[in-house]
Amino acid sequence: MSVGSVSDIQSQLLLDEILTKSKAQPVYLNEVTVVGGDSFSNGFYKVLLAPLLSKSDYTLSQLMESIEASRTALQKTDVFQSVNAVIRSKGNAILPKVPKYGNDDPISALVIINLQPIKLNSNAGFIRFNSQDYLSLDFNYVNNNCNKNAEMVDLGVSLTPYKPNNSMVSNAKFVSHLNNPSIRLLVDSFYANQENQEWLQSSEKSWGGIIGLLYKLPNANALTGVSFSERTIHDVQDTASDVVKKAVGDYTKLSIVNQLSYANIDYINNKTKNFPANGVTLDVNKEITFNRELYSSDHNKGNFAKVSGSLNLFKSFFNNAITAHGSVSAGSIWGNGPVHVSDRFYLGGYNSFRGFAKNAVNPEGGALFYSLGTTLYTKIPQIIKGTRTANNDLRFYVSSAVANISDNWVTSSSPDVVTFGLGIAYLNPWASLDLGYYISSRLDKYSESTIGIRDGFQFSVSIGGSILQWINSS
């Protein structure tokens, strides 16, 4: 939702005749009325309307600036589709004794703030099926107005019930606005049980969470916080790598976390947000971690600093008939000991690096990685699609990518890997389809290893639904 300037709000405010002809006169703010926001508490409005309620004696320009400040604060809460303000004169009001500006008596004014809340309560579910994980189920409940203060509670669970990658991950998130709606308190917890027998020959249970401050910026969010987790590696097979065997047991992890996320995307259909057409996304993650084995006197179990980031660029041509997508991601870990198997970088799989099995580019993971990819999307030809517009959701695509992951690019024998693919994709927030054929290879002339390579057809289907409800004040 865009926020207008003072000049913008001047065109939005509906000034009545008296105020229009009396801009030089002082204004006495007699009353502020909020319409359409009954679901929220008085304390919520008291904080956000503080710039407007801090005094009653204004000039017209000062009053409009205070309205704009309060309007901006309301918009930053992300719980309103629209926020509009109207000034009316209140000619019959009895005014207290207020200072005069020259010989002019103040005009009594009423400010009406009209609000249209978003759907504040939602229940969503997704069924996903792909050639790697088979079936997965996602369920999510969101309450955007907990305690009637626009505090968010987000509960979710993700299930992958079938082997070889069966898992269960649940999370509970709480976000509360502070006095400044641009700064929010975040408390996020999780519990996970993952069967990693296919690629790590082991299983893992973990739980933990993060507490921090979430900063809302234009088109971006920044997080600073502290996270804690406990991980247990168990059911380790004899064929597991040394990296896995060194992590067997119970470990605790304490981290100082910083995250930055930026997104400025235009979609082929901006209303439904189907298929990105132009724009950029950027994600940067940094952590300083202290890792310790429980019930051990040796505290040095792989303390490290970790940085990773990803960049995506989208550009469309010929009335969105062709869309180019470029991506780059990279990361590095610096430590004074062996890095826990759960903290290492991995590549491979349907949502990571197609053409390879899950995390199979280097099954042991690594402390360094990079990935470069390009994809060209084109609209379906008229003879197939039967339409004359480029603004449809179905696209042909051709893609290629190159990557590497290792502990040391100078001394490591881990080769670069490449993948090429072509297919058809349908992208929609509530339904998607991707069917492609991929050919992959390791760029190592001394090795013909095909371990982890998954040439051939790969596909993914997802269908979701949501029940949206209003939260009433009753």
Automatic annotation (TrEMBL):
Ranges of residues in domain Bacterial surface antigen (D15): 180-462
UniProt keyword annotation of Calcium present: no
Record-level GO cellular component terms: outer membrane
A UniProt-annotated Pfam family: Omp85
Source organism, top-level taxon: Eukaryota
Record's keyword terms, sorted: Membrane
Official protein name in the record: Bacterial surface antigen (D15) domain-containing protein
Record-linked Gene3D superfamilies: membrane protein fhac: a member of the omp85/tpsb transporter family
Compartments it resides in: Membrane
